[in-house]
Amino acid sequence: MSITSIKEEIVKSKKIGLSFHTSPDGDAIGSTLSLLRAIRSIGKEAYIISRDVIPDNLSFLALSEEIDGNTLEPDSNTDLVIVLDCGNIDRISAHLDNYDGKIINIDHHLSNEQYGFINYVDPTCAATAEISYLLIKELGIDFNKKTSLEIDIAKSIYTSLVTDTGSFRHSNVTKRTHLIASEVIELGIDNSKIHSNLFDNKDFNKVKLMGCILANVELALENKVAVMQISKNILENFNLINVDTSDIISIGLGIKGVEVALLLKESEKGIKVSLRSKNNVDVRKVAECYGGGGHMKAAGAIQKDLDLETAKSNLLKTLKEEMKL
Ligand SMILES: [Mn+2]
Questions:
Q1: Residue 165 Cα, ligand 1 centroid: separation in angstroms?
Q2: Residues with CB under 5 A from ligand 1 (ion)
Q3: Which long-range contacts (CB under 8 A, 24 or more apart) does 108-111 make?
């Protein structure tokens, strides 16, 4: 499907809801808020549908206050819902069971379920915001103008690029990623301040939690796999039930000789598993064995009705096969 056909649907629609994956990260939010700002600028009524509340470190973005967790399903008269950065219909941060209008699915996850009436899924994009950027330009936004509209959009897009590429270090980064970054930087946005907002903004308890997790990291499978575990107890003690742990798992991958980092988190829904790969191990395949998905080097899944130990040994068994050890 083409960007033009998405633009046509937007122009045709009266009321547009935007949503993203649950527990939204910088790309889910940046790709959505940039598009929301652009859609409104052409005079369309658009709003956020999200059961999640904006994470503190992303609250500097324009319109972020609208991600308040109060609109759980499409308002009446909504004739289009655009879902960004979400591969699985079950992971959308919106309740769509009673909605019978159109859905457009804009994403970059390889394991995307193509649940939309239009599916624009491009796994070569480092971030979903690379697609938002194309669509925003198609909607007529001119970055040469440098008004608050373009600057707000630029900050959201830059945030998406930085967060989904590990600050431009992952192998998903392409020339296009840098070209888009270059174009939005040209608007005079303060990249250093954005980095500080994103990363130098940790809750004190989060840093202490990191210490506890790192103190107990284990190595498995010929020291090629780093395993980290977080029990519900420890999350409750630190009052961090919904904490984002993507930065913690990256530290595991930083260990010399480690090829895969594994983080298991006990939650209401089951054991949440995150996987990261340094080089050639396709962790998406491992996640898919447990009904999850993601990218080759970053994936996740949930294992239900079992304890941390069992979830861990299941995963190590699957990983052992995948890594041919
Ligand atoms: Mn993404």
A1: 9
A2: 27, 85, 128, 164
A3: 109/85, 109/293, 109/294, 109/295, 110/284, 110/293, 110/294, 110/295, 110/296, 111/87, 111/284, 111/288, 111/293, 111/294
